């Protein structure tokens, strides 16, 4: 198939990844190409040049509009809308069999566009007002939508999802996250260093439990980093940097437990399955999709309770390291994920032979 992949523009689609959304888009492009598909990545122009890249914007917008994501900035909104509108027009004219939309933009959801190119839209964020109406209005024979977990699907459609929407769990290549037989007694945490990811609570829990802790990941919120994290660093608490995948896998494999501390309704939790693949049991917060992802591979407690998290660490450490690894191999591999993507593409393409869906409602 000739496949267009439309990415979010906040960060480049290139390692080391700014977050799970960027990682998913990169691995989708890499995995589908390896399966013999012709893939064009529509992303910021500073994304990975190893792919066939059609730049939606010259550079990622965090570089041009730093710190303005989620701030309602009119300049950023106009920039992003113009870039996506032009990209959608190029996709419509590009002879693509299917579009996999990961953009979080309302524009690829328009029915005139999904009728033109069969589309799979993957939702990567909890529901929010700027996108909710357009998502709910968009199901059509040639449009499939996915959430990253059952909890995420319920959040978007609390009264029941339409038949065109389903769960698409993220997946990783287990070979890229090699299993380590034993750890050194320390804890690890990885993710975007932002308040919603709860690194400050991981630090508090590790101190209570008397475990060394290393944090890994990009600093997304400099103010939070300076106020809540930097004063806590030193001694048994350290920051290991923002590492590329192989280096991060090696560091995770040396630890004995992974602290997973979402303070928002986490749609999935890619960092957790990366650590689990390396053999780390999880002590974490039961928020969003955490229970669905971690299952028997960890011990979860109410969100934002660092004392309860500290108490959960010994229970997590008692879980044999093969348990988290086996859970990943059973549920969250890249091959399983790509198989499901290809099935969704086939469904969207088959919808082109069905009668047209009703005319769309007027936007609010």
TrEMBL record:
GO molecular function: glycosyltransferase activity
Annotated protein name in UniProt: D-inositol-3-phosphate glycosyltransferase
InterPro entries (alphabetical): Glyco_trans_4-like_N
Any single Pfam family the record assigns to this protein: Glyco_transf_4
Domain Glycosyltransferase subfamily 4-like N-terminal, residue spans: 19-175
Cited PANTHER family: BLL5217 PROTEIN (PTHR12526:SF595), GLYCOSYLTRANSFERASE (PTHR12526)
């Amino acid at each position: 198939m000739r496949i267009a992949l439309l990415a979010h523009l906040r960060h480049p689609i290139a390692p080391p990844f700014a977050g799970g959304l960027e990682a998913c888009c990169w691995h989708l492009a890499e995995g589908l190409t390896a399966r013999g598909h012709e893939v064009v990545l529509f992303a910021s122009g500073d994304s990975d040049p190893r792919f066939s890249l059609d730049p939606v914007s010259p550079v990622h917008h965090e570089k041009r509009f730093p710190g303005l994501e989620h701030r309602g900035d009119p300049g950023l909104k106009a920039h992003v809308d113009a870039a996506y509108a032009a990209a959608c027009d190029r996709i419509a004219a590009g002879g693509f069999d299917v579009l996999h939309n990961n953009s979080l933009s309302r524009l690829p959801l328009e029915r005139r566009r999904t009728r033109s190119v069969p589309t799979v839209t993957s939702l990567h964020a909890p529901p929010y007002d700027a996108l909710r109406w357009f998502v709910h209005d968009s199901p059509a024979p040639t449009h499939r939508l996915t959430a990253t977990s059952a909890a995420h699907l319920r959040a978007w459609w609390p009264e029941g999802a339409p038949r065109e929407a389903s769960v698409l769990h993220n997946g990783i290549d287990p070979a890229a996250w090699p299993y380590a037989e034993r750890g050194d007694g320390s804890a690890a945490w990885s993710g975007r260093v932002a308040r919603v990811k709860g690194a400050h609570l991981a630090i508090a829990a590790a101190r209570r439990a008397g475990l060394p802790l290393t944090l890994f990941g990009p600093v997304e919120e400099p103010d939070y980093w300076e106020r809540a994290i930097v004063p806590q660093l030193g001694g048994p608490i350290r920051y290991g940097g923002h590492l590329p995948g192989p280096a991060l896998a090696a560091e995770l494999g040396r630890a004995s437990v992974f602290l997973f501390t979402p303070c928002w309704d986490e749609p999935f939790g890619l960092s957790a399955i990366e650590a689990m693949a390396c053999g780390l049991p999880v002590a974490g917060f039961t928020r969003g999709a955490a229970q669905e992802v971690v299952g028997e591979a960890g011990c979860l407690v109410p969100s934002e309770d660092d004392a309860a998290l500290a108490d959960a660490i010994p229970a997590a450490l008692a879980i044999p390291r093969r348990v988290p690894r086996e859970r990943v191999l059973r549920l969250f591999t890249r091959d399983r994920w790509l198989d499901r993507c290809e099935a969704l593409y086939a469904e969207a393409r088959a919808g082109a032979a069905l009668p047209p869906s009703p005319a769309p409602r007027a936007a609010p």
